[in-house]
Amino acid sequence: MRKQSKYLNFWTITTVSVLILYVIFFLSPLTTLLKQSVMHPTTNKLTFQHFNKFFDRKYYFQTISNSFKVTSIATLLTLIIGVPLAYLTSVYKIKGKRFINIVIIMSSMSAPFIGAYSWILLLGRNGLITKFFKDTLSITIPDIYGFNGILLVFTLQLFPLVYLYIQGALSNVDNTLFEASESMGVTGIKRFYKVVLPLIRPTVFASGLMVFMRAFADFGTPMLIGEGYMTFSRLIFDSFVGEVGDDAGFAAAISVIAIVVTTGFFLIQRYLANKKQFSMSALHPIEPKQLSKGKSILVHIFIYGFVGLAFMPQLYVFYTSFLKTSGLIFVKGYSLDSYRQAFSRMGSSIQNTFVIPGIAILITIVMAVLIAYLIVRRRNVLTTTVDAVSMIPYVIPGSVIGIALVSRFASGPIVLTGTMTIIIIAMVIRRLPYTIRSSAATLSQISISTEEAAISLGASEVKTFVKITVPMMASGIISGAILSWITMITELSTSILLYTSRTQTMTIAIYTQVIRGNYGIAAALATILSLLTLIALIIFMKLSKGKELTI
């Protein structure tokens, strides 16, 4: 009996339960996807015809080359912009730094296709800027469509992610290193390259990976402005939506290829980061210094210039949401018609935006806190397995997870396709890796002696966890949950494959309205989504008591 209580305790049961949930709702769908990719649809015999179809046709194979090209260049550009931007705002006194951080987070957390849609309004063939140059200056500027447009949107949309990562890393750099470098005559740009860049190199690799994977998996932007420039992510979406009835195996095969590609880049990034990995503890955080007047002007122009470009799409969407519309066309004058139509025709999508991500974030928080405790405080073979499995969704594109879930739960003992449940499951799977990491980081900062003291006074391990550990983690959990909720309400790549008319959220509604050319309603919904993001960020700042807005 004593042996049973030792091995069949609450944490062992929790570990096994979490593993079972992962097997049912994540590993099993991936297995189904892999099986579909190598099985003949009629004979059910092993075949590689689906992979051969991809590699034998130049059109399909070219999509990987296209994605690598635009994604790699976009990643490089985001690093060139984001790293210096974070360095300047961390090391020097910048006016409106808190405002800059809020704007950058809002820019990074809006759906990429919203940026693409607003740039169409600005730089499309009949866009505001395009018409101004043509009518006023008689200059024909390149339009937004194709490779250059995708690159522009990816760069301006994703460099804020680099900024946030690097800013977080710089907060852990000790100011004494800066003082020592100054005493040796190493200042300014030289200090950045000789001292700062080597210190934050692992974070640079991590932020670059995040940008690469976000850009590689995004199909909304190429769908709207790619025209003839077909990317791999768009091919996955088109193949699944267009061919699932006749050739589900091909959609499964290219999904498997996507997993291999993204996993490969993740492993390369981990290898490069681990080679230079070390820990830092900032006993004396960096103290921002005042720049001379001339340098200050240049630095502020650089910072506000790029931040303004990143946020301009959302500002223009906000503006167009108040324009009068006649059918699908904007006309002269202003009105609230777009908002009236948005609430009358898309009211259920607004409601779903609260309900579906709301349920998903509650489940995510509970699972993340339990898993974080297991991997930090209860390290063993089983919990290590949980830790490894929980990180797999981090490297898999959202569209692939959506295809896997549809393939597994369209039939069989558990049918979830077309329900709200399958979207909730997808959101939980996608956000868990991030929430687990933030929860584990918070827990690692809590001394285990506090828990040991409670247990020595007669409290059970479970009671200690609920009454002592969780309350001490509360601020970190809530702050992380708010940021996770923001990413859930703007999620598209998975939900677009799983939704029905009854379960669409605002992000899906915006996308469908843009595709239909109904820009007024799309602008109104996008503005409401941005306001929700802003309110959530304000709550985050209040709860985190002025903590820097980093990820």
Q: What are the main properties of this structure?
A:
single chain, 551 residues, MetI-like fold, 2 domains, globular
Low-confidence spans: none
User: What structural category do the secondary elements indicate?
Assistant: mainly alpha
Could you report the average pLDDT, rounded to the nearest whole number?
A: 83
N→C terminal distance: 46 Å
- CATH classification class of the largest domain: Mainly Alpha
Give the total of beta strands: 2
Outline type: globular
Total individual domains: 2
- If classified by CATH, what would the architecture of the largest domain be? Orthogonal Bundle
Radius of gyration: 25 Å
CATH topology of the largest domain: MetI-like fold
Count of individual helical segments: 25
H/E order of the elements? HHHHHHHHHHHHHHHEEHHHHHHHHHH
